[in-house]
Design goal:
alpha+beta, 4 helices, about 20% helix, about 170 residues, 4-stranded antiparallel sheet, 7 strands
């Protein structure tokens, strides 16, 4: 399934590049003696019109449940280009997904946000959010790489100047 339609991006020159995705989460009942429920991120897939706008259960056998959360619009931002670069150069590019669980009903959890930025995921983790990841498909990694090539400019490292007090008197300016 191709997540990126490059023709649609060319038709909208002023719009930010974006893709619509849906998140699949799994819930497991009584995975061990200490947990009543365990949630995990299963996949991020292309959002299809047939998915609708509301979350829906894909499978539920009483012990395991898979649930689809559609309608995430992932836009790329030039000021996040370094975060995209870090994700792509990590060795295994991934989707980052923030998800939350219900304090009153511990059997409920849902996806909140999706990103491709390593930096943004770090900010979420610093804010004590639950962040999981799943592998990024090769076609989307290539699309993201094209965006990074166009927008990311590594910071130029300045040569460190030795403080004047450490130089011999004849070399001070």
């Amino acid at each position: 399934m191709n997540l990126v339609d490059t023709n649609s991006l060319l038709d909208r020159p002023k719009a930010r590049p974006s893709v619509r995705v849906a998140v699949v989460m799994e819930r497991e009942a009584n995975p061990n003696q200490w947990e009543a429920w365990r949630f995990s991120l299963a996949d991020v897939v292309a959002d299809e019109p047939a998915f609708g706008a509301q979350p829906r259960v894909l499978r539920d056998d009483g012990r395991r449940q898979s649930k689809l959360f559609p309608g995430f619009e992932l836009e790329l931002f030039a000021d996040e280009a370094e975060g995209y670069h870090l994700n792509l150069n990590s060795g295994a590019p991934v989707w980052f997904v923030v998800w939350r669980s219900d304090d009153e009903d511990p059997s409920l959890a849902w996806a909140e946000r999706v990103s491709l930025s390593y930096t943004e995921a770090g900010r979420w983790l610093d804010a004590q959010e639950r962040v999981d990841n799943v592998p990024l498909p090769a076609d989307l990694a290539a699309w993201l790489q094209a965006y990074v090539d166009a927008h990311y400019r590594p910071e130029v490292k300045k040569e460190r100047r030795r403080p004047q007090s450490f130089l011999p008197p004849e070399q001070r300016r």
